[in-house]
Amino acid sequence: MLNLACSFRFKSVTAAAAFSTDSPVHVPCVLTIAGSDSGAGAGIQADIKACAARGVYCCSAITSVTAQNTIGVQGISTLPAAFVEQQINSVLDDIHVDVVKTGMLASPEIIQSVCSRIKQYSIGSLVVDPVMVSTSGHELSGPSILDRLRKALLPLATIVTPNMLEASVLADGKPVNTVLDMREVAAEIHRMGPRYVLVKGGHLKNSHDLVDVLYDGSEWHELRGSRIKTRSTHGTGCTLAASIAAELAKGLDVLPAVMAAKEYVAKALEHSSSIKIGGGAQGPMNHFFQLADWGKLSSRQCRFDPRKLFLYAVTDSGMNKRWDRSTPAAVEQAIQGGATIIQIREKEAETLEFIKIAEASLAIGRKYGVPVLINDRVDVAVACNADGVHLGQTDMPVRLARSILGPGKIIGTSCKTVEQAVKAYEDGADYIGCGGVYPTTTKKKNKTIGLDGLRLLCEASPLPVVAIGGISAANVEEVMNSRPAMLHGVAVVSTLFDQSDVGQATRDLRASMTAALSESTAGKVFS
Ligand SMILES: Nc1ncnc2c1ncn2[C@@H]1O[C@H](COP(=O)(O)OP(=O)(O)O)[C@@H](O)[C@H]1O
Ligand SMILES: Cc1ncc(COP(=O)(O)O)c(N)n1
Ligand SMILES: [Mg+2]
């Protein structure tokens, strides 16, 4: 059966295990099984471009070759099902594919072949874009495929992404004109067996906003965005489905994958409003608007190991001074006690002093293989070649920090809402610090979001999350047992550093975390 195991989830590991860099990097991979568009706005060509732009490798099995441009579809030649099957075998026999995405499947035999291949190989997730008609109004696959599509392919799908017209056809001609219709038809299609149904609203009439409706069998999400004025809408459906596949391949769950994919399509459309390729009514979109950044976006997804967030120690110069020890000495004790990542937070130090403290702490971090991040100050991080930075919402924007620090550094940012989390992901952050979970003396004016706020953010966060704010050995079990899937660890300040013995305080916290892990619910969350 298909499963959506998220690659970010982990079991408790030692810092040393989290740091192994010897194994080759797995590049997330999508296989698209779709038609070729000679004009390259939609089909296989759009899929490969979308995946590449999202930092994902994309293989292809071509089902039909269309003679197509921005004016329309001039011809279609459909390949024999056996040859489609051969292409799929060639890819899957050799290359590890995380997600399969299907587009134009023009014959029932091709659908049958695709189903049999998907069942034979263990594929993580399946995205089905039930392509029927081109944006220019030409039929790409006729009614002969409907029965197989409904009965054989949809039950295997993680998500199916019909536009309003395709949704109506799947539901035997039920009219789909309004958002209410979209909700109803989503439920009807869901009964055919896919885990999620996304009815796309690109063709919604009389509406400023565009609404896509996502349904998982119990809950509807209305994903809204404003309609972008552009003629470059050829291939939006293919691009959206391929981007969802790419995000799933990187390890996101379905809702955050859809949100990230929608954001990407919207940005690509925005960047396409001024381009002109071809003379027809529907031009292609610019998939590579982030080309200058793309290496950065792709590599960070592969490099940062979220297991490092497990026990995240944030220093406080005032506390360490009070207990008469230097920050680097406190850092060493925390690491010896089991901290897996360190953040140097020097709110009062002058720049030179901050750099010296950071350099000494980094030397210790490197000795133990534990990353050391700098709070707030990108300049200090650059000066001492730190492993990365942690930025608040009022510090340097993540996108700017990424452009300064490059792809190899870790960037974390503090978020309280899902919107901030999705933006952090889009801007190139690696993880999110979410809180304050409980009231804390370290940050008096900080709003407390509680366990509910933490859960809400984690449910839709595209990035791994570390919980922060008032967490101690006494309540850490409750935090871990709150079961948000993207939660990867807890960050603490006074629990470690406002103590006489930092090493012991770290060991105590780690023991409570390990105890929570061995209990059923938290064990599942952190695995
Ligand atoms: N002009 C637009 N502005 C913003 N988003 C759009 C626009 N047109 C389509 N989209 C989005 O692109 C995706 C593809 O939608 P749609 O056009 O309905 O699919 P298809 O290309 O399969 O007909 C959806 O997420 C939709 O909301
Ligand atoms: C080969 C091929 N596949 C799919 C589409 C649909 O395009 P859209 O993304 O606009 O729905 C297309 N026009 N051509
Ligand atoms: Mg489409």
How would you sum up this structure in a few lines?
This protein is α/β, with parallel strands linked by helices and 527 residues long. It is built from 21 helices and 17 strands.
Please, could you describe this protein's structure?
Helix content is 40%, strand content 17%. The chain is an alpha/beta fold and 527 residues long. It folds into 2 domains: 29-278, Ribokinase (UDP-N-acetylmuramoyl-L-alanine:D-glutamate ligase); 304-525, Alpha-Beta Barrel (TIM Barrel), CATH 3.20.20. The chain has a 9-stranded mixed β-sheet, with helices on both faces. It has an 8-stranded parallel β-barrel with strand order 10-11-12-13-14-15-16-17, surrounded by 5 helices. A hairpin with a 4-residue loop joins strand 8 (209-215) and strand 9 (220-226). Helix 12 runs parallel beside helix 20. The longest helix is centred in the last third of the chain and has 18 residues, at 351-368. The radius of gyration is 25 Å and the shape is elongated. Residues 1-21 and 292-302 have low confidence and may be disordered. Bound molecules: adenosine-5'-diphosphate, (4-amino-2-methylpyrimidin-5-yl)methyl dihydrogen phosphate (MP5) and magnesium ion (MG).
